[in-house]
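Dear colleague,

Following up on Tuesday's group meeting, I ran the structure prediction for the two-component complex that the binding team flagged. I've pasted the input sequences exactly as they went in, so you can double-check that nothing got truncated or mislabelled along the way. The structure tokens for the whole assembly follow below. Feel free to forward this to whoever is handling the docking comparison.

Inputs:
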Amino acid sequence: MRIIACVKIVPEEQDIQINADRSLNLERAASKISLYDLNALEAAAEMAAGGHEVVALTVGGERVNNSKVQKDVLSRGADELVLVSDASLENALPETTATVLAAALRKQEYGLVLCGEGSSDLYAQITGILAAEHLNIPVVNVASKVTLDGDAVVVERMLDTELEEVRIPLPAVVCVSSDINTPRIPSMKAILQAGKKPVKKLTLADVEAAPARPGSVLESVQAPKMQDRLRNIIEGDADADVAAFAENLRKVLN
Amino acid sequence: MSMKDNIWVYSDLAGRFGELVGTAAALGGTPKALVTGSAADADAAARSGAARVHALTVDTARLTEDYVPAMAEAIKASGTPALVLVAGTRRGRLMAARLAVRLGATIVSDVNSVAFDGDALVATHGVYGGLAQGTERVSAPCVVLIMAAGSAEAPENAAAGTVEAVSATPEGTMQRVSSRPKQGNTVELGRARRVVSVGRGLKAQADLAMIQSLAKALDAEVGCSRPLAEGEKWIESERYIGITGVKIKADLYLALGISGQIQHMAGVSASRTIVVVNKDKNCPAFQYADYGLVGDIYKVVPALTKLLSA
């Protein structure tokens, strides 16, 4: 069976800088696999030990063409990487990404699609679900355990107030939670082999993605205003300083 | 009919209806509610101020998600424009997304504020882990918004609405095998009123004891910056505060030996009072501080514990 793990290539948020006008500067932000997608890749790789094939799938703008990140994806248990790249997908919102993912999946054979909990840029946590509904196949989220069982998969879902166990006939989409596993650190061997694995590049036309007609537009991204703080700073940790500081704390506590 | 006259609210957990009704009220509407829970849940939704509650008659052996098609039919029958507010619980998120596709609706997730601007809706949500807020302008005849917890207040003294039982046919191929209640969360840092937090200034895991003593003296929870949880693994990851961790809105946040990078401070900036102790007087944390002391935490923390326990 083919297991498809969907991944998003995103900017490293730790590298993001805030401009004086509170807009974000992503120029120095390197590309990486979105953190929680590593769980999806890992879950696929662990299941593949049962003799299945793992294909990694990603859609996006320029970042998906980054060969270093492509090799990173392939070093984590995927046999092949399929990507759809288009300038129009730069900063795409979940609806657009989901439409293209669904279109790409229609061209693939698969039994199971695994997605992460949410991407580290938008963290909408709905893209995999939207794609599944477009494909009219069953989907669950917050899966903390996924087990293949013949032509079905048994999933434990960690909901807010209950732990629910569900049996789902394949093909299906399962969005895994971030605590389902600990993603592997790729071995030297896996990293070296990654360079030899196939990367299949597709265009929007190849997957026959319908043109996006988004109902919403991201107008602005702004860091919050820095609240004016008192900045009452005592310089020094002599006993008198600490006592004065304790007094300040007592004021706040009451 | 304008969109504010056709607002629907849905939560799979009854306790969240109040906030959704509050959001609808702020948008100028009195919503209809869809309920897939018990009769008691339907009454709770009615009491929270929903004008009419459509209580779907559900088969509890089925997955709640199997009622998404029925919910979509009820909403479609009300015509357009339509706005559906869904509480962002884990199950709610999945149902909202499926509903949006079935309705051909535009969906925005984890909305923390929303308002009309003419015919369009303007909704904000966190991006990059809360480092910044994204503002989306939504112009579509049918919209689904997943509302973040705490994004609105439940209205006080709302007029209770009426409950109508509605038959609904479930649709779906997934089988619910079992369900058991979850054990309570061991730590709810996001709700803590006071948090004492430690960073790289801590030299050894054993030194956490002095931090815990101070936290106890202050009746505070213990948190940390990312390196201590993900890197050193000295503290469980539920306690790390930052853009990829917990966000806190405490009355008091005390940062000990934390340099104050934006990736951490973005997780605490909603706190009322921020207090910082660090031996580097030029560290960024002091920019965010109401009160601070430049000094060695190994000297200051035990001294503070003694002074504040008295």
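Residues 220 and 249 of chain A are 38 Å apart (CA to CA).

Cheers,
M.
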